[in-house]
Amino acid sequence: QVTLVESGGGLVQPGGSLRLSCVASGSIFRVNNLGWYRQAPGKQRDLVASITRGGLANYGDSVKGRFTISRDNAKNTVYLQMNSLKPEDAAVYYCNADVQTSILYNNRNYWGQGTQVTVSS
């Protein structure tokens, strides 16, 4: 079994910054693609950013130039640096990972429990 645990959410004023972290633990052979998604009340869950094991990043249009995704493969950890936060960035942020639990197995997709980000003055 694999567990993803997010941290770093909280309350921040518009224009402020937060850094989210997500650690994958458990029966892991290799963590492949990692991503951050967010879901605001009454809305669908959308991709914020993703990153391949090799470091190739992809961003949702609404966060380009403000958010940066990075990862530490040795620590099975992904980060999301969020700058210039806007009220519309408020949501529950979820970590997502494609994980191989064995060299014999294909990727299986996992979700974290989510961390709340509130942007308000």
Query: Given the C-alpha coordinates, what overall shape results?
Result: elongated
- H and E order: EEEEEEEEEEE
Strand percentage: over 45%
Stretches with pLDDT under 50, minimum 5 residues:
none
The separation of the N and C termini measures: 40 Å
**Tally of DSSP β-strands:** 11
Major sheet characteristics? 7 strands, mixed
What class would the helix/strand composition place it in?
Answer: mainly beta
Radius of gyration: 14 Å
Oligomer state of the chains in this structure: single chain
Structure explained in plain terms:
Helix content is 0%, strand content 56%. With 121 residues, the protein is mostly beta strands. The strands form 2 sheets. Strands 2, 4, 5, 6, 9, 10 and 11 form a 7-stranded mixed sheet that branches. Strands 1-3-8-7 form a 4-stranded antiparallel sheet, with no helix packed on it. The mean pLDDT is 96.
Keywords:
single chain, 121 residues, mainly beta
Summarize it.
The chain has no helices and 11 strands.
Task: Give a topology summary.
Blueprint: E1 2-7, E2 10-12, E3 18-26, E4 30-39, E5 46-51, E6 57-59, E7 67-72, E8 77-82, E9 91-100, E10 108-111, E11 115-119
Parallel strand pairs: 2-11
Antiparallel strand pairs: 1-3, 3-8, 4-5, 4-9, 5-6, 7-8, 9-10, 9-11
